[in-house]
Amino acid sequence: MTPESATSSEEHLRRVRRICTALPETTEKLSHGETTFFVRKRVYAMFANNHHKDRHIAVWLPAAPGVQAMLIHTSPKTYFKPPYVGVSGWVGIELDRIDDDELTAHIHEAWQLISRKK
């Protein structure tokens, strides 16, 4: 990664952290080498900083059934199917291609989806 992308990744992590930590019962810890956000011990957001050198500075979020495919089809430069969790419907979001309002909406939806599960 270049020094510019390192700075960019730090700024993007701050964005994700600010949004996530504003949500009730959120905790943050390192999981699988990435900063991860939990609600009641369940993951709802994972920051991915060039995970396995995939060149994505992104957040991975769970999505309701059908949402992942729709987002990727509609905007394939912004949304992608992340490794490992993509088969379960999670969606990757390129952080340099989304504004704070859209990012907040996606993170809130992910939080609600996971916080409702028992």
Tell me what you see in this structure.
This protein has 118 residues and is α+β, with helices and mostly antiparallel strands. The protein contains three helices and six strands, in the order αββββαββα. It has a six-stranded antiparallel sheet with strand order 1-2-3-4-6-5. Helix 1 crosses helix 3. The N and C termini lie far apart (40 Å). 29% of the residues are buried. Mean pLDDT is 91; it is low at 1-5.
Which structural traits does this protein have?
alpha+beta, 118 residues, six-stranded antiparallel beta sheet, globular, 6 strands, disordered N terminus
Overall, the morphology is: globular
Estimate the mean pLDDT confidence. Answer: 91
Q: Rounded to an integer, what's the Rg over CA atoms?
A: 13 Å
- Which strand-content bin applies to the residues? 25-35%
CA-CA gap between termini: 40 Å
Low-confidence stretches: 1-5
The ordered string of helix (H) and strand (E) elements is HEEEEHEEH
Q: Total number of helical segments?
A: 3
**Structural class of the helix and strand makeup?**
alpha+beta
Q: Helicity level, as a percent range?
A: 25-40%
Tell me the major beta sheet. Answer: 6 strands, antiparallel
Strand order of the largest sheet: 1-2-3-4-6-5
By DSSP, the count of extended strands is 6
